[in-house]
């Protein structure tokens, strides 16, 4: 089986998660999420584009939503947590530590 990590990116999500997520929430959770979306909060997730046997796929961390957009120190912490979550997912798929580390470093440097 051939596989490679094409790239890893961090995505800022300025609007609400997709409707399929909202459908699974209870009424209080839904109310809180909708209020946060309207109040300028955002989310962050780590995304890897990978290729396995010539098929390109996208793997995403779970993401953290409802973050205050002006708390840059906390954003850096959340970015690290999301990259760690994605790292574990890539390990489970069978990618090596060095390949993952290199892809994360390119992400942090803004190199694709």
Keyphrases for this structure?
112 residues, alpha+beta, 4 helices, elongated
Question: Can you walk me through this structure?
Answer:
- The chain has 112 residues and is an alpha+beta fold.
- The chain has one domain.
- The chain has four helices and four strands.
- The protein has helices at residues 19-22, 27-38, 72-93, 97-109, and strands at 3-13, 41-52, 55-60, 64-68.
- β2 and β3 (55-60) form a beta hairpin.
- α3 (72-93) packs antiparallel against α4 (97-109).
- It starts with a strand and ends with a helix.
Instruction: Indicate the overall shape.
Output: elongated
Mean pLDDT: 81
Task: Let me know the number of strands.
Answer: 4
CA-based gyration radius: 16 Å
Question: In sequence order, what are the helices and strands, one letter per element?
Answer: EHHEEEHH
* End-to-end CA span: 24 Å
Q: What oligomeric state best describes the polypeptide chains here?
A: single chain
Q: Proportion of β residues?
A: 25-35%
Class from secondary-structure proportions = alpha+beta
Query: Which ranges are low-confidence, i.e. pLDDT below 50, for 5 or more consecutive residues?
Result: none
Helix content: 40-55%
Please give the domain count: 1
Individual helix count: 4
């Amino acid at each position: 089986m051939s596989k490679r990590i094409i790239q890893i990116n961090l995505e800022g999500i300025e609007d609400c998660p997709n409707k399929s997520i909202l459908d699974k929430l209870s009424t209080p959770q839904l109310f809180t999420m909708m209020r946060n979306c309207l109040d300028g909060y955002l989310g962050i997730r780590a995304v890897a584009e990978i290729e396995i046997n010539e098929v390109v796929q996208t793997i995403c961390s779970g993401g953290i939503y409802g973050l205050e957009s002006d708390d840059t120190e906390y954003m850096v912490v959340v970015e690290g947590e999301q990259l760690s979550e994605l790292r574990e997912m890539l390990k489970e798929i069978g990618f090596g530590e060095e390949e993952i580390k290199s892809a994360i470093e390119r992400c942090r440097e803004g190199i694709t």
